[in-house]
Protein 1
Amino acid sequence: MSDTTRDPAIDLECRELTKYFGNFCAVDNISFSIPAGSFFSILGPSGCGKTTLLRMLAGFQEPTSGELSIKGRSMLGVPPNKRPVNMVFQHLALFPMMTVGENIAYGLECQGVDKALILQKVQSVLERVGLPDAINKKPDQLSGGQKQRIAIARCLVLEPDVLLLDEPLGALDLKLREHMKVELKQLQNQFNTTFIYITHDQSEALVMSDQVAVMNNGKFEQVGTPQELYYSPQTDFVAAFVGENNRWRASVRGAEGAVLELELPNGMTFKGTAARKEAFGAGDLVDVFVRPEAIMLSKTQVDTATFDNVLEGQVDCLLFDGANSRVLVKESNGNHEVNVTLPQTGEFNDLQEGQTIYLGWQQAQAKCFPARDFSVEE
Amino acid sequence: MIPTIPQSRAFKSIYAGYITLFFIYLAAPLVVVSVFAFNDSLFPSLPWNGFTLDWFFGDTAPRKGLFHEEPILESIGVSVFVALMVTTLSVFVGTCNAFLFERENFPFKNVLYILMLLPLVIPGIILGISILVFSNTIANAVENLIGWDWEILRPGLFLVVLGQFSFITTIATLVISARLRKFDLTLEEAAMNLGASKWHAVRTITLPYLRPAMIGAGLIAFLMSFENFNTTLMLVGSDAPLTITMFDRLREGSTPVLNAVSLFLMIVSGMLALVNVMMQREKQ
Amino acid sequence: MTGHNHFRLGLVLLMAPLLIWLLSLIFIPHIDMLFLSLSEKVAPRVYETGLSNYAAFFNEPLYWNTFARTAVMSILATFLTLLIGFPVSYYIAKMVRGRVRAFLFIMCMIPFWVSELVRTFGWMILLRETGVISSFLVFTGLSEGPVELLYNDVTIMVGLVYTSMLFMVVPLVTTLDSLDDSLVEAGYDLGGNGLRVLRKVIIPHAMPGIVSGCIVVFMLSLGNYLTPVLLGGKDSMWFTEQIYTQFITRFNWEQGAAFGFLLLILSSLIVWGGLKITRQTLSNTMG
């Protein structure tokens, strides 16, 4: 054990955690700590190493190197059945041959809890997850959302220090998933247990989490609140992965502090801001990220006058999707295409393809990173 | 107890040791049978007197090899004949059964399905005697009524074929049904939509799809028939299949020619099994 | 109307082979055997209906002792096969992957592509007085002189377990294979140790495979003839030998038919009981 004094409110801490499979580095030197009672998400595309990381926390993988401790106690070499963490598996892993009650009682029996007390605890946790009558049902008699709640109840009844959740919403249909997001967050509040949630779905991570770590290629790109990730991404990967973004390659014509004068290959110029504290010089290539919802759409030129950047273009394509509707706007002199959110205020309901339209956005909304080729796949 | 659960080194080595012992147990009898086929001795036992191929190619007593031992060669011929008959019959009936149980609906289907499974849970020797008794009853009745002696219903190859067929058909049915169950019915509907008749669609689409399973079932049927002992023992007449001949020899006291026959059998059934495995792989 | 008739004709044609097979080779022969077992020879060529063949079974201790012994030994063999085969099946299904797994599985099957006669012959070469193991014991000085390892109950058991192993391993591997790894992981994650996960998660999941394996193994042991005769010798006292003796040696078919029926009843009872206890059906156990 190291002699550094630990914050008692830290539930889980990893230092320089690394996992190799042969020559492949799945988890690359990750350090982080999670305060007690928080909802912490690890968000990343598939194959980024998040499942490996979670399985190391649960004890199903041993780290190649690094330290992992829970409530100040090192977990290295501790088998999964002796760790104060429990896991909600991706496909829930409810025991199909047991009833709901037996599923929940399983862990308590392992701890050698008295039979009468077990029954009492099982009933109480079932009430807390809102399924007081499910005790004698078999898992396959439950709906998807109910199974979810039982899987969580089965863990929470053991009062673990940390609850690990391995994309448990992935198998649910869209409507139910939206509903379960809210419910999971409420359960976490109600039980006040530390949740570590891994997902490739940014919306799940943003809605539920106190803190989100964006993971890519075995490393954490950025750890922060959902707002921080969304409003001030610190890497181009985070900018591209979290939320929607227009991504343009541009060259720097001049710099004034963090404000950059940019030029697109088709000659169009506009202003942007360096996202980090890097200095850019004329001629540097940058990737510019502008969110579709940060761009003002207007039918008349006047409205855009107050913006740092304005653009006149034609509606190229309408992608109607209710509240998520988009417009692809083609710049008037040149082929540059901009993806803009369609405000549902009623004003644009009659928008036609080919119609002339004006766009405007602030320079602070155009975030610049050094140019780099990569792709984001979920 | 799966690789992702950490286990102590001692547990892992004990487990691996156990598995090794198990496979030695499985291999030991087969290995000794094969090895002693080459022992230059009149008995299949130690000491090792040196290597010889006499038990395959020797042509004078007492060292008559497998390929010059007429009774054994004859009984191999008998076994092949019986196995071919059983295979043809059971694959044909098995295919009909598969279509019946997978495609049709009729009253008492479940009852009939369970009856179809029953031959698997009836001991082979009882299948043998019941068929022996019944065929004898018919033969006697025929003799009493019209005075003919139906030789075919007395113990002999015809009864051996029927006896083996009576339970091998269940296995063939299960193998072929399993594949028919996975068949996408819309393929047949597509064929009929393109103008094929029902029978033509089955013949050109479904049966080719079933062919791997039919060949697989055929191989299994052939092997099971070739190796069958219990049912055959009760029904056999003067022409003995190989297993019966070998059994009689074994009781008399054996020479390594039996090892040679055994090795020969292992190689043949190994090859059949290999074909079966390759078929399975192709199927996937 | 014509379509309907056509359909019925097709059904009849499809069903004909099945009915002919089941009726003429299974159903009627067993009924006939039952009648034969109920007829007594009162004088040459004169028969009466009666239970004397069954009475003979219960009055002659040799018969029912052999019967009981066969049943008990078969149950023991089934149990041993399960005990030995389960860890192996689990190893193949869960501990190894890919090529190793396929290799081990094929290794398990190989002995059973070979005739039972050959396998039994192998055990005879290994175990008899002049056999490999006996010679080895003498050679290493563990034994003063040659040892006869054949012709005792342990040898019969070794042979029965060996002969039945495949029919236990295949259904077990199949059901264990369908056990989701995450269920085992969940069992540990919630605090269970190996034994508890085995008892609460793995064995309940494997139950259908265990039942179908046990049923087949029990039936094969009960109906086995070769192994007791060749490995157990003259004193092996297996019930199938009695049936063979009555039919072939003594030509007392009435008595043999009664014995056959008793064996069939025992085997059916145990199969039925096994299915009832574990709430399985024959269809999903065999099919």
Protein 2
Amino acid sequence: MFTYFVHRVLVMIPTLLVISILTFVIIQLPPGDYLSNHLEELKSQGESASAMAKIEFYREQYALDKSPLEQYARWMGFWPGPDGFSGLIQGNWGQSFAYDLPVKEVIGDRLGLSFLINFSTILFIYIVAFPIGVYSATRQYSIGDYGFTLIGYLGLATPNFLLAMVLLYYANVYFGISIGGLMDDKYINQPWSFEKAMSVFDHMIVPVIVIGTSGTASMIRRLRANLLDELQKQYVTTAKAKGVPRLKALIKYPIRMSLNPFIADIGNLLPDVISGSVIVSMVLSLPTVGPLLLEALRNQDQYMAGSLLMFLALLTVVGMFISDVLLAVLDPRIRLTGGATK
Amino acid sequence: MTNVLLVRDLKVEFRVAEGTIKAVDGVSFRVPDGKTVALVGESGSGKSVISQAIMSILPKPAHITSGEILFFDPEKPGVFYDIAKLKPDSKEMRNIRGGRISIIFQEPMTSLSPLHTIGDQISEALHLHHKKTKQEGAQITVDMLRLVGFPEPEQAFHTYPFELSGGLRQRAMIAMAIICRPALLIADEPTTALDVTIQAQILDLMQNLQKQLGMSILLITHDLGVVASMADEIIVMYHGKVMEQGTLEDIFRSPEHPYLKALMRAIPRFNMKPGERLTPIREIKRDADSKFLEQANPRPILSGDEKPILKVTNLTKRFTTRKSSLFGAKPAGEVLAVDNVSFFIRPGECLGLVGESGCGKTTLSKLILRALTATEGEVVYNDRGRDIDVLALTGDSLFDYRNKVQFIFQDPFSSLNPRMTVYDIISEPLIIHNVGTAAEREETVRELMTLVGLDFRFLRRYPHSFSGGQRQRIGIARALALKPDLLICDEPVSALDVSIQAQILNLLKDLQAELGLTYLFISHNLAVVDYIADRIAVMCKGRLVETAPKEVLFANPVHPYTKRLLAAVPEPDPNHRLNFANLVEEKASNPELWPAPFTADLHTNPIMMDIGGGHYVRVHENTDVTELKL
């Protein structure tokens, strides 16, 4: 078990490396770069010496006039720049050219808030999907099952942004929650306080529901199908034949078995939720990283985009790691027979 | 004599979309205290439904419409429960279920949860019905594991079911069933999924436990051999009705009912006369002059010393097991699946290959088919006079070889693609090998269907609309499509019901004669092999230990393993009850414990010695042949 754990941790390193290469290549793919475009723009407006000097400085700093390999190495921090080793692995996320600020400062609070929203969404998906899935499977073809199935399909079919606007309207009319953002305007740029946290919590409800609906709907379907399969199995009858009360037999055997795909999904859910939240974040004007990422990609603001993509990749890889470890803890077949091949 | 269970006029109906099915239709019987009652019948006769009704674990669409199931608990004289009236979830029923009546299922592989240790699952039954502390529970469980024959019960407590063999899983299942010392044990086909030798051990265990705990057993089975060795009373069921009931002696001495007589004639037995045919309960109607026979071009079978059609010399297959560590996988050990096997098959004969599961039978057949690659050895196939080195074939010549050797699988359910029609399934080999035009192929497929006794109007159907026996016939038709000379049949009847088994065996026999086929017939059922094979090869732990013509082998088995295998077969005859005392535990399948001159271990490697009359036995070199024959 310990070897497995260490093995999984070590495997994450090459995975992230490969992702960083892919990210870098994809960002470099479109012709031109932000600085050249910006330079053209400046030239057409009449030059400004200080701006030109700044551009030159960045060129030097990030090896933008050198080969892509060198650029990559500097970005990652494998190769010393003018300030010595200073790249992603040293914690320097680079400069956002569009904002003319270090990426870290642009992102600021947003990273934490994104994490908060996405984490809450996943929690929401699990909390809602689990009981409904179990109910649907154990009461197959009942009115409740059909009802949840219908709602689930609606959830899958409704465009998120539409749902977002509808919910926003009602949240505003009935609960007086201000439209858009993650907190009331008065708390923006204020230090954290209990009231501010409560305001954030109030404002999170709508986005979490909106981002989570489709994930919840598909999770319900999956859990229902899995559990239905498991309920047919012989060991469930064995448990009944022992005289185990119904609810206990259900929880101890088939539900435990059908948890596997539930947990294996943690890793898959993260990128889904994050990419799904970009448009919703635009619509609801949430201060998350989604809109920033979109903007950065459009502007070819390469360090901004690269850092954000790497952050998402890290989340996914860590999510996968957590789900793998949980699976091994939960399922002795994975723990004990892993690695043996025939 | 007091009864533990009394079933009176029980009727169970299944209400499904297609209408109402009477699964059990007015059944009455009793189970006397401390006795074994066998419930016999084909699948679909309603015997399992009765067991579910007694346990009150009927599936949702099933309803008890009338009748009573009276349970007299020997521990509470004078008190009885009518299980048919009790609610399945009521407290009384839950106390009875698992506490006073418990059940063992057929499939030891799936009836235990793979996620919980067997100790957990066994002690759960105990804690539900008796107030015990965790330590007491664990202690009782370990004692119970010892009682059912686990070699190391303390360790076994913490193992998961998938770490155990089929036999040990069934023992764990038995331990779970008897840990509360029930008054009645229902055994629903407890040994059907197991090898004969393991079956004998499990039956022996059940009898011993019955004596020790004084419980009654309701044994549900279709195997009359098991019944003859175990039962005191017998109930024969057909289509939800009782056909006949009586004591063991009555039933076997003078079967009255035509159904029972037919059932007895359908089972292969050891003492069948040469040339005697099994009489299936439902005969397959075949079109005797199928055109396929005319164009079949059977291989001419010359009498006398023609060269063997298949000659296998020193064939060896090693599997390496891998162990993964921090730095990738590396080979950890080797498993010798097939060890220096040599044999031959003459054209037109049927060679039976017998052995317990895991002995390498299937691996051997896959090596011959080139579905697996051999580690060492030689396989020569004689293609009507032209020798082919099978293991050296590549590309086109390997593709051509597939024309000549075909395979019939064990499981008729998973060997047919559920998403292909019967027509697609049977014509697929023809398409792959580009035989004929589309019209000719269609003609061939129709003829194949009539050849195996199926209506060609079924061609557009999908496999799920056929029964197990019909599916197996589709599998046979597929194997015959390319007009092979050699057919490898891997346990073709072991997944089928007794009554169907006779149909398929007869069909295979007829086809062999009509098409001049040669069979390699793999089975663990000696009676089946006796019925169909000319010569028999016995395999154990990857080695052949004895080959002989079948009359010789059954009359004069020499190798201790063969002897044990023969002794473990239950015969449908109360005069030949299994002699459990003869069944030495694991010893007979461990080559290191075989007595001299048979011992095979690191130091001695016995060879196959000809002891005359085509009888070969694996013994040490320089063994005196005359001594062995005694």
Protein 3
Amino acid sequence: MPAPAAGTGPSRAVVDDGDVAGLGKARAMAFLAPALLLISLFLVFPALWTLYLGLTNYRLSGSAAKNPQFVGVDNYINALSDDRFFNSLGLTLLFVFGSAVIGQSALGFAIAWTMTRVRKSVRAVVEFFVLLAWIIPSSVTTFLWYAMLDRSNGTLNAMLSTGNTAWLLDYPLQSIIVFNTWVGTAFSMLLFSSALASVPPSQLESARMVGAGAWAQFRDVVFPHIRGHVLTNTLLITLWTFNTFTPYLLTAGGPDDRSNILPIFIYRLALNDGALGQGSAISLIMIIINLVIATVYLRLLKERKS
Amino acid sequence: MTAVQGSTSTTRPESRQMLRHFLGLMGKSVFTALVLAFFVIPVLWLVFAPFDAHPGLNVKLPEFTFNNFKVLLDNPTAIASLGNSLILALGSMVVVLVLGSLASYSLSRVKIPGRDLLLYTLLLLSSIITGTAAMVPTFLLMVKLGLIDSQFGVILVLSGGILPTVIFILKDFMDSTPKSYEESARLYGAKPLRILWDVVIPLARPGLATIAVWAVVQVWGNFLVPYILLRSPSKSPAAVVMYTFYTEGGQPNLALISAFSLLFSIPVVAMYFFVNRRYGFRFHGGIKS
């Protein structure tokens, strides 16, 4: 072992501020800098640029691509007077409500709840398959559902004997809601399983002793324990569902915009039709909605910590 | 049913309890069966079709063959795309591990002014500026930087997106590693980078492994970012290339797609369950695919 170096000798060492390796502020900043640079360039800058781009008539090609003009809030006025935008916003609300709040949350809870009262082996099998849907890459899961819902050879039509129902054409929004429920339920299930595990069995036991039914047990004993988790879960999956692009691979927003949720709307408007300015304006609206959800979530998290 | 109800009227409390128990058992079993059907049936295609001599879109027991994998191996685009997925996944993993451990270590050990605010902002940013919400400016930025159709560009964008979560989680791990080893290493004159490499990294290995797997899973399945930033099929990852497998007749090439899907899915599924078995599920802010 070499002798202690002159500068970092033990004499200067023992100030108990947690900086045990003698990093010092300057070096700490240097360690931090590369990460912050990457984050600023590819995460923060794009967000800020959206602000500016949304105020221009920037296009992917043509004269507005070379010399974009400043058009002020025109893009926002256009968006707010565009039926396609409101159609998309409405579809997104239905999609998020149907597949996240109702689908994933309710189904995830129901599974977690039921799995506390079945044999261990059954539980392991169910949890494995629910998780599998979550882990398989989205390009593959969308193909699996494309096959399931196919008009002439799909397994769903064969199972329900519904003839040649073209699910993706006749019920596009319902299809992507069911699909997204299928994909995402695992998270809610896991979260609620760990929440339910924290309910003291003695309390449930005494509730049962005084003859409380299943519903009363749930309302008076279980729910107060998991209330925080319900909120956390709802906010997180709302945020994720609101931002998912995967349904594009199933319906591409169609037919006739009937499953044109916001992410797909932005993609088609900005990158297919080339209206980058208009697309940025709508992206900003999306970021603001994200901000509201995330702020509520982080505030809750902080409250629970303190 | 009628028999049970009939006896209810005679001896009340016990039979009522039995009825309730029976109904509960029924409900439980029916619900479990339905849940299993819902989650298992779509996946069956992925289990059977790759080994079926005549794969269709429907789920059916296969006429067993390995021929579909031969079709896959004979398709250079398909094989190359799996390689591309690997490049993107490992590239991003290395970037976030190196930058993430440097950053989280310094945040964990030194009270830089505004540290808590910085962590809070990072977490907020990563959850609101998602790939979808920022696709327009990201695309334009990459055009301006000349990084369209560059795998390096995709790695940078993906790493930038997941790095805040990585730092947040790794800082937790770094906070919980014992500090006494660093102190003694320092007394022997080791420089901070050396302490980080020789002392801290080995101690934080479980955390780093979790993060590495998580990063790979995130990038491996990502569709949107490579879809908008890459142009050449020869550079595109599996998630994107999968949607170009059509026969001359314009029908999806099911032999190829089924075998490809299976090969594409197995690594992440295996890694996920490996990490789960080893370290258990953890809940952190933004962890999800």
